[in-house]
Amino acid sequence: xxxxxxxxxxxxxxxxxxxxxxxxxxxxxxKIVASKEGWSPAVWSTIxxxxxxxxxxxxxxxxxxxxxxxxxxxxxxxGEALLVEPYLATVGLGAQFVSRAGSDAQKKAILxxxxxxxxxxxxxxxxxxxxxxxxxxxxxxxxxxxxWEISGEKFVVLGAPVADKFVVSAKTxxxxxxxxxxxxxxxxxxxxxxDKQRAGDVGFSKAxxxxxxxxxxxxxxxxxxxDFATALICAEAVGAxxxxxxxTLEYLKTRKQFGxxxxxxxxxxxxxxxxYVSYEQAKSMACLAASKADSPVxxxxxxxxxxxxxxxxxxxxxxxxQEAIQLHxxxxxxxxxxxxxxxxxxxxxxxxxxDAEHHLARFARLG
Amino acid sequence: MDLNYSQEESTFxxxxxxxxxxxxxxxxxxxxxxxxxxxREDLLRWxxxxxxxxxxxPAWPKEWGGTSWNMVQRYIFEEECGLAGTPPLIPFGLSMCxxxxxxxxxxxxxxxxxxxxxxxxxxxxQGYSEPGSGSDLAxxxxxxxxxxxxxxxxxxxxxxxxxxxxxxIFCLVRTDSSLSKRQEGISFLLxxxxxxxxxxxxxxxxxxxxxxxxxxxxxxxxxxxxxVFEEGKGWTxxxxxxGHERMNTGRIGTSKRELAKLKEFAGRQKGDDGRPLFxxxxxxxxxxxxxxxxxxxxxxxxxxxxxxxxxxxxxGADVSMLKIKGTEIQQALTExxxxxxxxxxxxxxxxxxxxxxxxxxxxxxAGSNEIQRNIISKMTLGL
Lengths: 367, 383
Ligand SMILES: Cc1cc2nc3c(=O)[nH]c(=O)nc-3n(C[C@H](O)[C@H](O)[C@H](O)COP(=O)(O)OP(=O)(O)OC[C@H]3O[C@@H](n4cnc5c(N)ncnc54)[C@H](O)[C@@H]3O)c2cc1C
Description:
By secondary structure, chain A is of the alpha+beta class. Chain A has helices at about 5-25, 25-35, 40-50, 70-80, 85-100, 105-115, 220-255, 265-295, 300-330, 340-350, 355-365, and strands at about 120-125, 140-145, 145-160, 165-170, 175-180, 185-190, 200-210, 255, 260.
């Protein structure tokens, strides 16, 4: 048993943290978030220069062959800094499908460009009324010559406005399948989400698509990749929680009322202690999620562990984010304080890829 | 024991309900239903409709426009307004400054301010909190120095709700900083927001909305006749206001309405299995727990009201209990609404999520819930 990161993982996490502390402080983030594009090409190129865009891909395509555990430290650092770059959408979702289900030719065409930071991707999957049910897809794909034509609409696609290529789920005669679609063949309605990320509704009207993996039966790989991405946002949540806990602790030590730091009130001491207990529990479950994403006994074992992790993470996201605001008093409510932004990100993570109730049901089903 | 309203009380409820149904303008009703931001004009319009009916300040003495309703009737009225989804009556004039002037003001102050508050001619805001003085209000530093027949005010207030709409602000200021007991050098001043030297700066909350402000005072000249009660006795005034009967703290009518809305909303949303979310046992149980909390709060509120009616005593620390439970319920409702929304419907979801963010304020303002617990532990439990 060893819960520590190995030396490489630790070095990487440290260097990411150092970079973000310097080049991605809250003011820098504020500017990026307020910009028209909502992400920073400069930050993105540093991210890929540091090897982060290549981390979970095979060395055959220029990557480092890492897994969720290798990404954990990176995601924690991203969570602390509230990174809004399209990292999860590209590296955690879009390119994962190519890496796991694509043909050699597709891998060769896509992965080196992703690794080099030249290609950004997004996973267009969720449809109206599906809630968190991954199997519910109505978008259609029809054969057209050698390729396919995709028609229908996807909603709240993370990273859509930035993506060069989409991985799209659609139904064929044989069932649920995955397709690569160029962003120029889509119609995107972009917006800013509650946590200041960029997303969009994506329309496909006879959009040219290229099949990834076998026709029909894509659900297994969708579940695998979404579980992988879930493990990543669990780690991201842990980072955002750490920030929320640490900044609240600092506030309790410095904010004075009644002539003393408010941290001297026992009522608040117990509250912050409970926040740290929540954080430690969440971190443990994030470790479980990452290690099961990489090396599960089987798909059921993976799904069960990741759902368990997500339940705990969702509950503790709520607990920690709400308490952080409460203990800050009025200041916590303001847009100018980073803690209110961590509140928003933690609120979103709590339900990204399924809220606690969804994962409770999934866990129960898996026995 | 009889938990029901009397015949007269029920009749009164029907009368209020019927009147609200007929007189609440549709556009305002819609704005409330869709959680639209209300403009100054929206707020004042509703205020004036109630003023015209004579119902805008039920608790005031008859001679100043009060209704002489008893406590239960006043509670019923407030609950019905919540249920009907009326715009809120902004409390700063009607239930804060007004009662203070009624209790402590001079005749001249009463004549000058009360009719304008009643008619909605002046929009008031509350200048208590400062950057360094939130829960610990008595540490406030904004200074008012007597110079002839004026006070010269310097300092800063913050979190001033709707200060950007306000014509007047009532402030707690320090008129004497030499006293060892901090509460003793504080005075209650009424300040015209148009006075030179006042700057209002918006504070944006995390939902992106502008409802609170910073208010800066730079050599602001305030005539001494705007002092309420004696110089140095502002704390007595502030304490009176805190103890002033506020039995609507629990916002039961509004929460009942939000609950009904949530049920209807969850009936339209689909769960993972494609059936209405409302039929999903996991979601339904969460919602039912909130509903039961609300029932318990309502009955507790009525029980306190009944006690108060009999004993004739002001509610004291009981109000703190209502505030704690009422705000927790309001927050739980916004959280469940956000959860119920299909997150693939971006606009609807984000609207509800912003409301969830905004409602975190309810356990912080008007005496944080921690301070309310301190009050109960001290006043009720003697700890
Ligand atoms: C949306 C909004 C609107 C507002 N509107 C107005 C307004 O119109 N006019 C106005 O004057 N003020 C207004 N306020 C200010 C409000 O009254 C204060 O925010 C409140 O009193 C808390 O003060 P603070 O924010 O300085 O927090 P602090 O007092 O610094 O408290 C920080 C944390 O410490 C806790 N704490 C403090 N003391 C103790 C203690 N002794 N024991 C245990 N816990 C403690 C608090 O509960 C809180 O969790 C508003 C605030 C908000 C958020």
